[in-house]
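Objective 1b of the project was to move from sequence-level analysis to a structural picture of ligand recognition. The entry below was assembled by the postdoctoral researcher (A.K.) and checked by the PI before modelling. It contains the amino acid sequence of the target and the SMILES of the bound compound, guanosine-5'-triphosphate.
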Amino acid sequence: MKTDTIAAIATALGPSGVAIVRVSGPAAGGVLRALCGEASPEPRVASLLAIRHPRDGRLLDRGLVTRFVGPDSYTGEDVVEFSCHGGYLTPRLVLEACLAAGAREAQPGEFTRRAYLNGRLDLIQAEAVVDLVEGRSPRLRQAALHQLERGLSDRVADLRGRLVGLEARLVHHIDFPDEDDQPVPIEEIAAEAEAVAAALGALARTAPEGELLREGAVTVLAGVPNAGKSSLFNALLGVERAIVTEVPGTTRDALDAVVSLDGFPFRLVDTAGLRESDDPVERIGVEVAGRWLEAADVVLLCVPARRAPSDEERRFVAERAEVPVVLVRTQADLADGVAAGGEVPGAAASVTVSAVDGRGLDELRAALPRLVFAGLVEAGSDAPVLTRARQRAAVEAAREHVCAFARALAEGVPADLAATHLRPAESELEALLGTIDREEVLDRVFADFCVGK
Ligand SMILES: Nc1nc2c(ncn2[C@@H]2O[C@H](COP(=O)(O)OP(=O)(O)OP(=O)(O)O)[C@@H](O)[C@H]2O)c(=O)[nH]1
Ligand SMILES: [Mg+2]
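Corresponding predicted holo structure:
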């Protein structure tokens, strides 16, 4: 198939010092000549050149132009990058000039897709590009950079290699099943299979927290009216987003905003105070709060410090065994910092805070990452993390196949039959890396991209 030449503005549109228009494909050199004349700059050296429209030769801008000769480029093809002035008009004009010179406008993610198809990146790295470009939390950035540096790819490739090794060691058993003196005892093969399954399991267990890095942990502030939810929401955000009044039932609609705590993303949701109400608007607010509570990754149950938690509040905690509920004793400045009523069974943590003098807020900020991202906090920033459902599904499927293989060996199934579980495990990991193409997988991966990447 003949590839065409694509072009796009690779930087965000708007006033900026510099914008980059990127061109990739066999005609990139021709586009460069059409815009900048015959003197072709040395590869990988930025040259200050006049950029002109190919039709009428009018000056569009003067900028740094760099050409890359495939395969030594981002996409693996011939690439030209025009660094022109930013803003609303100049980059658009330079792009139009590239199109007039024979390029066509790139689809979202098309540069990275070409990089993948030309073997410059694997699929995990391609996904990491999206997270690096779009992610807003420092820990997601770290995970994405680690993936881009092949941290996860190397781990996956290593596990796949061990599966291939298992297959190789089985060959002797398959060819000479009845020999007593096997070069590798079957128990040793089974033990290695168990070890690979365990490593896959450990990787899969990073996924729930890894996926939350991309989405933000839904952190719902709940409690009776006037418990101080909106005040706490504002204090954690550092801006007065939510309306605060002494009137119970102030908050109706849920408000949400993302904050970064110790680099981890939390999507704070301020909700209407939980109570029975005759006011239809407030009733809807309470219903909305209920829906957010169902979606919560962690709940901050706000209870004023000056009184003991009520039976209802204790029940609220007891009924939510599946999500961590932090008991937040609010308005501590009104209670001399001493929370009345003590422990509530089932609470994941208890913190006494004041939105007025700020006490306890740092403790709460520190507690949340440890509760929601415990595994990632523990593992440190250099451990491979699965950040996408696609990655989790592949690793879990591979693990199941390896477990089936180990089970088959344990049950005395002949080696050649047991071995049939290994190929599918390998191919799950290959599809994860993208070493075998599955068109629909590619479409899904690259659907997330913006134009110019
Ligand atoms: N002294 C003191 N007052 C607080 C504190 N937090 C909230 N308040 C006051 O308590 C009242 C209720 O605070 P809100 O933050 O609106 O409470 P809420 O839980 O959002 O209330 P609803 O939206 O009605 O459910 C307001 O008068 C606040 O000024 C605090 O830490 N110290
Ligand atoms: Mg409120």
